[in-house]
Amino acid sequence: MKRKAYFLMVGIASLYFQNVYGQQTENDSLKSNNIDEVVVTGVFDKRLKMNSPIAISVLKKDFIEKQTPNSAADLLKNVPGVYVNSSNGEIRNSIASRGITIGTQDGSFGYEYVSMQEDGLPITNTTYFNYGPDFFLRADATIDQLDAVRGGSSSITTANAPGGIFNYISKTGGNKFAGEVRFRTGFQGANTSGLYRTDINFGGPLGNNWFYNFGGFYRYDEGARNPGDYALNNGGQIKMNIVKKYNRGSVKVYLKYLNDKNGYSMSLPTRGFTDPKVAEGFNNSSSVLLPEVQYTQQNFVEGGTLNYNSSNLVNSKYRSIGVNWDHKLGEGWTLDNKIRYSNNDVIYNTSSSTSIISATSTALYNLVGATGFGTYNFRDLITGQTMLSVNAAAPNTGTTPIYSVNQNNLTNQSLGANSVFVTPLNLYENRVEELLEQFTINKKWRTMSFSLGGYFGYSDAARVSGGGGVSFTTLEPQPRILTVDFNGSINGLGGNYQITNPNGVAQFPGNNGVLLGFYAKQRQLAGFFGHTWDITPALTLDWGVRYENGNVKGHNTRTYLKVASGLDNNPYTLYDNTILDYAQTVNYNRTLETFAYSAALNYRINTNLAVYGRYSHGNKAPDLDVYFATNRVTTIQFLDPQKRTTDQIEAGIKAKYNAFDLFVTPFYSVLKNVPAGGFATMPDGSFYALPTLYNDFKTFGVEIETTVRPIDNFSIRAVATLQKSKITNGTFWITNAAGPQDDIKGDFSGNETSATPRAFFNITPMYSKNKFYTFLTWNYMGERQANNRNAFKLPSFSLFDFALGYNFSESISASFNVNNLFDNYAVMSWLRPGSYAEQRGTLDSFTPELYQAAVANNSPYFTVANPPRSYFLTVVYKL
């Protein structure tokens, strides 16, 4: 691969070198013109885009303001090469670049190979299961610009991000006071759920070269898939900064406070695989989130109690203060230093994926420790009506009860005879403190620029993880909670049992409801060097190296539980019969070193046309999940974190004229040593960790970005990605029946990588004249392999977004947007059909044979799709 990169760069150089060697023109590294942009992301020093051998897209504020994204990640659909799964909503989304991906079907691991940044620093340096940057990132009126760098130099210019850098740059005050207020309302989905949002941003001079900017947003959003009892998104953020400019530089001090509650789209029952549709009784706007329910359990890790309230959803709080300092030291020397402290909390009060479970199956009663002989009654929590009554009779032989239904008043029983939804309650409390700093010293000497710098990241993370509660609900949108009682004998003790508490929450018995405590201090040190040489006025060499040393030190506490008579000393109240048996703590301290490098040649044919080639070798240190997964005394000795490596070759042609611009980037990407593990289910319903396996992938393709302006007032913007990704060395766990006894390794080498479409693009024709504009965006997503086993493909789809706007005056404007104009159900992720245990198995355990059987039986399964059709009206008042 190194040889290929060498020939690529030498070929570009030799093709043009003699043509330009004798030319003597002024170095135009920063001589901007009206059709070029200055690049500040993914480079060590500011350069024009035409002079920068990187794959970068720049989204300006006037473009961003015309959008109505569902999340900050949604904006990245306007960048080629970036696969965006934003179907979950505001949070828990997934970003992948150039096949450097994992977890794009599960928002728990959505940003592992990219750096989501604000103002040049990562939003958070810590990622692990259900904790990532988009919990703290919102697109609002304070955003001035979005820089998106794919691969390449991201391996050496930022930490742990070989897939790309996405930098959301905030507005700062100018020489004149300017401000705006935006009011947005919306009607979403078939239920016309409401959205009410206000954004503000004000900025200007304070005198004596001081400037300020203040802004943020607040919104109340019932959600396109409205849960009913509470808003799906409720909260906002405040951002402010003060800038002091002086002769030799500037200092910016900025603060941010975010307090937001967010839900995310749960998977919906679905029929059909080639043309999936929401199952009977549901529609594209349905929600299966729990109604408002409260549940209190003991905190066996830290003491006290844990209080669950479904209406609190995922409550993210982010408090940060930072300083950016640029200073000219003289004689071509400059200093750039960025530092930020943040204190973050993410409190989960939500549920894991809802599943269908039969009330005539022992699995349901095993889940809550209530397997016995007698009569079970499922009652509506609100009305008390008996919705289902099941008799469990003693068999003639064996110990498994024989079930018969006495009464069934449940809805949608075609999805599963005598079945209900089972929804485990997730309760996570995360506390993270972070200090991040990056400094760069730059020296310009003749036609060269030298950069030397360092990066420091320190994170102190604490997490209590678990949730011993589980609810049973009706098979319908905005489901009703069912209480469950039992009259009979369990383990030889007869009587009247309350399986659920008065709020309709049962308890996982014993270790099925285990709580875990994770405590880690992550320290990351990096040093980097970059060199840019304008060999001639047209030919530029750009190269750099990066060394990183990362240490993770901490401990995990695992509680071991047992069944007893509980807090109330009453064995017949099963909902509180789990108590602490004992706890064990394991300690770890691991250090990992990585070395990355990248080199490129850029040839500027003329002011409007350039070509480049680049080779990059990058690394990704494992997330904290690798350390948290090892929480048993018997397994801590096997903790062996491994770095993941990437190798990329890319070339590009950049053309920028008044009538059109074009950026075409072929690429070849290799990703190695990707861990594959996960969890599977024991026969009693508890979970066990699968041993980690490691896999390799390769992807090649081309990224295209263009804007064409064929006539006045009309333009067409298009971004497209054509690619093919392959598993070059892949082993994955196949979990069959419950328990590890028949788990086997499947070798999927040679298969196509899952969730990686061969083609995806969006095309936006726009017409604007005087005070009016309108556009229609066509988003296309090609078919994707549903799993690494290539059992079947998720189908392709098209979504259309429409907008029009009008400026009534210099101060007042309005816009109208329709997202998902034709209300298509566009599947982005799925859960396999089958029993409760099978639905929670790995996707790769779903075989082509099981797929054929599911198709023949028209079996229901679960999918998550993009939001339904929604309408938005925005009014802007500018001061």
Task: Write up what this structure looks like.
This protein is mainly beta. 6% of the residues lie in helices and 55% in strands. It contains seven helices and 51 strands. The strands form nine sheets. It has a 22-stranded antiparallel barrel. Strands 3-8-9-6-7 form a five-stranded mixed sheet. A hairpin with a 4-residue loop joins β10 and β11. The protein is globular, with a radius of gyration of 28 Å. The protein starts with a helix and ends with a strand. Mean pLDDT is 91; it is low at 1-35.
Backbone CA Rg: 28 Å
Number of helices: 7
**Average residue-wise pLDDT:** 91
Query: Helical amount among residues, as a percent range?
Result: under 10%
Class inferred from helices and paired strands = mainly beta
Give the helix/strand layout:
Layout: H1 2-20, E1 38-39, E2 47-48, E3 56-60, H2 61-64, E4 82-85, E5 94-97, E6 114-118, E7 121-122, E8 143-150, H3 154-157, E9 164-170, E10 178-188, E11 193-207, E12 210-221, E13 233-246, E14 249-262, E15 268-271, E16 277-278, E17 294-298, E18 305-309, E19 313-330, E20 333-351, E21 355-358, H4 362-367, E22 373-380, E23 386-393, E24 402-408, E25 419-445, E26 448-466, E27 469-473, E28 481-490, E29 493-498, E30 506-507, E31 516-534, E32 539-563, E33 578-606, E34 609-620, H5 625-628, E35 644-656, E36 660-676, E37 679-681, E38 687-689, E39 693-711, E40 714-729, E41 731-734, E42 744-747, E43 759-769, E44 772-781, E45 784-785, E46 793-794, E47 797-807, E48 812-819, E49 827-831, H6 836-839, H7 848-857, E50 861-865, E51 870-878
Parallel strand pairs: 6-9
Antiparallel strand pairs: 1-2, 3-8, 4-5, 6-7, 8-9, 10-11, 10-51, 11-12, 12-13, 13-14, 14-19, 15-16, 15-50, 17-18, 19-20, 20-25, 21-25, 22-23, 22-28, 23-24, 25-26, 25-27, 26-31, 27-28, 27-30, 28-29, 31-32, 32-33, 33-34, 34-35, 35-36, 36-39, 37-38, 39-40, 40-43, 41-42, 43-44, 44-47, 45-46, 47-48, ...
